[in-house]
Amino acid sequence: MSILEIIREPWPWYIAGPLIGLTVPILLIIGNKSFGISSSLRHICAACIPANISFFKYDWKKESWNLFFVLGIFFGGFIAAHFLSNPNPVEIAPELSEKLATYGITDHSGLVPAQLFSWESLLTLRGFIMIVVGGFLVGFGTRYAGGCTSGHAIMGLSNLQWPSLVATICFMIGGFVMALLILPYILSL
To answer: What is the model's pTM?
Structure first.
């Protein structure tokens, strides 16, 4: 099996998980930095839109490493999606495929269903709720919780931070409620 074939296949949890987990000690050892993605939006706003807003008045240049990190994630995702993606349709359980078909979701050729996440679906009520309202709620929740899931669940829990434990528990409860109670209703629109 070639290295390209290995990269294209999904990696098992026992390899991908420790690789993600190793970012915590590496960031702490290299520069006493915390892992998180949501703070980079604040850094971008502070750098690009200098306004007289106290929230953006800080030395964002000290956090420029985070911008390079996010830029690396963006380009890594672009390269993976365009040059290293598996050409086969996404494999999902037959029961899930049948359930999704009842909601009109039958295209499993991409990373996300085109019937939910596309420019055409954005103009539907279901697509607007999923993309715009969902995006707003993610941004609001991230700000309200003081960080995103990667910052709290990966970095905060590994540092034994109580607020991160509370935030991660709330993220999980919210995810279960969404998946089991709210999402079926939205998909039926």
So the answer is: 0.77
